[in-house]
Amino acid sequence: MSEAVAVDSTGTPLPSVGQARSRAGSKQATLRRVLRQRSAIVGLTILLFLLATAVLAEVIAPHPPNLAMIGIEDGVRARSAPCIHLLGCPESQPQHLLGTDGNVRDQFSRLVFGARISLLIGFVTVGGAIFVGVVIGSIAGYLGGRVDNVLMRIMDMFLAFPALVLAIVIVSVLGRSLVNAMIAVSIVAIPIYARVMRSSVLSVREQDYVVAARALGDSPLSILVRRVMPNAITPLIVQGTLGIGSAVLEVAALSFLGIAAAQPLAEWGLMIGAERNQLFTAPWLVLAPGVALSLTVLGFNLLGDGLRDAFDPRLGR
Amino acid sequence: MIRFIIRRVLSSIPVLLGVILIVFTLVRVLPGDPCVAALGEKATEASCAAFNERFGLNEPLPIQLGIYIGDLASFDLGDSIRYSRPVSEILVERLPTTVELTIYALLFAIIVGVTLGIISAYRRNSIVDVGTMMLANLGVSIPVFVLGLILAYVFAIVLKETPFVLPPSGRLSAGFRFETIPQAWGMMDLQGPLRVVLDFLSRMYTVNGLITGQFGLLADAARHLILPALALGTIPMAIIARMTRSSLLEVLGQDYVRTANAKGLRPRLVLFRHGMRNALLPVVTVIGLSVGGLLSGAVLTETIFGLTGMGLTVFESITARDYIVIQGTAIVIAVIYVMVNLIVDVSYGFLDPRVRLS
Fold first, then answer.
1. What would the pLDDT profile of B193-246 be if each residue is shown by its tens digit?
2. Chain B: residue nearest A2 by CA?
3. Strand partners of residue A13
4. What is the ipTM of this complex?
5. Structure pTM?
6. Contact B232, B295 (CB under 8 A)
7. What is the 3-state secondary structure (H, E, C) of B213-252?
8. Does any CB of chain A come closer than 8 Å to the CB of residue B185?
9. Are the CB atoms for B290 and B239 separated by under 8 Å?
10. A298–B31: do the CB atoms touch at under 8 Å?
């Protein structure tokens, strides 16, 4: 296997702990450096837009996401083309910004509520992976020796699988549901965070201030939280931001394959999967969630790249 | 060099064992009854008992593991519940499709990605550079299954009446007849490993068409491969382009590049001999890593384009709850991935003498 260097989804090496630690100045200086990255700004803008959509879904969406419009509107049909009255769609037809889906639900409303679900999936999945990864990485780095070796070899074995394939195996065992799919994607992501955390622990373990803390009788947990975590937080945030993008993508892929989200949930991957056979007659039903999904991933990728560049002095532009 | 290769090969054996162990453990230890997973929620206790008996799930775990590894050593991946056929048989039929698709996707990714990366680095901050990198950012972010569906729509529907129309599904046009390699070469009596290899190559239609001179087959298969390969190759292409650019930029800032420029070497010579050669190592790493993404993406690509490869097999098995096939396919895919990583590691040795000696 290749060397144990933490890499992001693009294979770019992440800033090592030493580099992250050398950050100079206050929090404001850090923030300023992040905001100087153009990609971070664009990414942040996209994500704030998505976040606003997710929070204000009830206000933005004209209809409830799971409401079939049959019997509620006159002349409504399944998979009707987008109809916007302002753009010259006849008033006699009910207005649906992105048309209706196969179950006569308003596609635009489903798309809006989908933002909420996708962001939730991303944060929960990656949060879980980071938590477990941090625990494993800390134990491995702190105890060292045989424990370290065993834990890290197990992590390597997980990395020997293509991510989606391993996730599919896990879901097929756990049973198909959105929660199980999120667990699967989370498990698949753990090794990355375990590695980042472990290298953080290793790099500070012999530092004077840690040795001093140990000599003062601080418990391993307190040393971990107060001395090690501040050093590990930057690479974890960078890796986590990029990881949310891939987590959203992988869960959507599992939904698309039909083993994660189930109807009637307004999940983008599921929406694409449900209508993909109508691609040639109602392409907008596939395109709209597809664009939304890509935009979300793009947002997290750009922000992650920006954060990485901001924290990595080697990449001075 | 030989010692280096041997060491690398040996070090991948524990990883392979680990892969087997993980799949084995997942299927047996995770909460979730393989019987229920295979037979459905309404499986009765009696049918579950019979199921467990049939697949040896009554034995203690270590014995199950022993039997399992023994079976794997003789290429026995179990029998498909759905087809009542050995999984290995199904995979031998379907692997060539995936291998062919992955190779073309990877070729596209490497050729286009490296080229774009070099141009971007060489014309740093030009319009071309900014445009390429924006495209690369989009390329990394668009899901395989979305891109695949968009491509299918554009090339099969929007461009229907133009010469650019491409088929959105299948590997060959309906009713297309062709000869396998043994047929074409009059070697139908051949048996043994060579026959297996030839049958394997026969199912990679472009290879078959090329070496047996069936150019109609080659053209038809290639036409069917363009869209899936584009869909699958775009993400790695974008990743490779970004990596090539940043790696090359770093190298071009080195002193020896300045020296080479200062002594008046032609820019192209500096770029390729001094620049690219040293920038290649991280690019090769990324290429190796992206094979994992390609194998994951193949599941989605084959599902969308109706290509009967490993990926579609996984998808069908999910629907049919055929977990033995999923298990076997996952192991084979992971083994391929480990092998690719091995090749990547060995190629480091060729590219960088320091790796050999360490």
1. 888 888 888 888 888 888 888 888 888 888 899 999 999 999 999 999 999 998
2. B345
3. A7
4. 0.85
5. 0.86
6. no
7. CCHHHHHHHHHHHHHHHHHHHHHHHHHHHHHHHHHHHHHH
8. no
9. yes
10. no
